Amino acid sequence: MAHAPLVYQLHALLAMVLFALWPFSRLIHAFTAHVGYLIRPYIVYRSHARATPYRHPAAARPAARKPAAGRRQSDTRR
């Protein structure tokens, strides 16, 4: 390798550095087996037109009632 061109030597050095650092980077996920990907269902696309407007589930819940003025909270639970 001592007689190889400088560009080739740099290329080989960078490849060795990449292989040395690969396990400690996020690139290691390229080798993980995505078994669930093979058996997952197809994506179901839905129409954007809805019969009723969309409301967030948190907005659909009724608001908590405040106790009437002058009453303790234990009096309102009857």
Low-confidence stretches: none
The end-to-end distance, rounded to whole angstroms, is: 89 Å
Task: Figure out the total of helices.
Answer: 3
pLDDT averaged over residues: 76
* Major beta sheet summary: none
**Tally of extended strands?**
0
Question: Helix amount, in percent?
Answer: 25-40%
Rounded to an integer in angstroms, the radius of gyration calculated over CA atoms is 31 Å
Please state the structural category.
Answer: mainly alpha
Strand content of the residues, in percent? under 5%
Oligomer: single chain
Shape: elongated
Reading the helices and strands in chain order gives HHH
Question: Can you tag this structure with a few keywords?
Answer:
78 residues; mainly alpha; elongated
What do these coordinates show?
With 78 residues, the protein is mainly α. The relative contact order is 0.05. The longest helix has 16 residues, at 6-21. It has helices at 6-21, 35-39, 57-60. The chain is elongated.
Summarize the structure in short.
With 78 residues, the protein is mainly α. The protein has helices spanning 6-21, 35-39, 57-60.
Task: Please outline the helices and strands.
Blueprint: H1 6-21, H2 35-39, H3 57-60
